[in-house]
Design a protein that fits this description.
alpha/beta; TIM Barrel; 8-stranded parallel β-barrel; globular; binds 3-methyl-2-oxobutanoic acid
């Protein structure tokens, strides 16, 4: 996958889309050489990089900096940048300036949480040539409204509302929609009803693709692993072992050795 229109082609071909989060150039450089389709500079960086307990602390300049770094490391990847909490809820002019900031930082598209009150703005950005990814379900910026990070769209009426919103986002011009933490049968229903692809996280196997926070996939945090995130390695342990190995070598006079310094 090289461009935004490829998302649509992938859904049409039934070929699953893969996306992971990325926030820095060193990681982006590694990801640039993998087959992953797209990188998301998510506002999750407020939690996993900056250590806050929610994504509400992310700002446009924070996402701008992480987008610039990610683009420097991954020149070949599709990059989607998150519009942070309330950055699209002031004046339309201010919101559009924030979109411009993230696109100029190197994003190919922006992602916006929720639908209510956003469709007109999204339509204007799409008309101006900015690809927009929607995001429905357990939208983390609404954690206070939801009373925690909880599965959404559990009953029929909430599922129908989510489906209506997904159709509205498609109508507004979104090229894809992230479906986060909703029941698998609801994700399947939404995916079948839309022409555009859905990208799931914690929403089962029937979406057009999957996205994971890279830190969860790598097992960076020993104390945190969402139940839906498969750990493909225990990076926390490998990381600690490497640093302990280095400390031990220094203490035992085994580092640096000949060849590792200039005589
Ligand atoms: O910010 C983020 O990482 C996200 C994903 C969880 C979809 O929005």
């Amino acid at each position: 996958m090289k461009t935004i229109p490829d998302f649509q082609r992938r859904k049409a071909a039934g070929s699953p889309i893969t996306m992971v989060t990325c926030y820095d150039a060193a990681t982006a450089k590694i990801l640039n050489e993998t087959s992953v389709d797209a990188l998301l500079v998510g506002d999750s960086c407020a939690m996993v990089v900056h250590g806050y307990d929610s994504t509400l602390q992310a700002t446009v300049s924070m996402i701008e900096t992480h987008t610039q770094a990610t683009r420097r490391g991954a020149p070949d990847k599709v990059i989607v940048a998150d519009m942070p909490f309330l950055s699209y809820r002031g004046s339309a002019d201010a919101a559009t300036r924030s979109v411009a900031q993230l696109m100029r930082a190197g994003a190919n598209a922006v992602k916006v949480e929720r639908c209510r009150g956003n469709a007109e703005l999204i339509g204007n950005w799409v008309d101006a040539g900015v690809p927009v990814m929607g995001h429905l379900g357990m939208t983390p910026q609404s954690v206070n409204e939801f009373g925690g990070f909880k599965i959404q769209a559990r009953d029929e009426s909430a599922a129908q509302t989510l489906l209506d919103e997904a159709l509205e986002l498609e109508e507004a011009g979104c090229f894809a929609i992230v479906l986060e933490c909703i029941p698998s049968h609801v994700a399947e229903r939404v995916t079948d009803a839309l022409a555009i692809p859905t990208i799931g996280i914690g929403s089962g196997p029937s979406t057009s693709g999957q996205v994971l926070v890279l830190n969860d996939l790598l097992g960076m945090d020993p104390g945190f692993s969402p139940p839906f995130a498969r750990r493909y390695m225990d990076a926390d342990q490998m990381f600690s072992r490497a640093v302990e190995g280095y400390c031990e070598d220094v203490r035992e006079g085994d580092y640096p050795k000949e060849g590792e310094f200039r005589p």
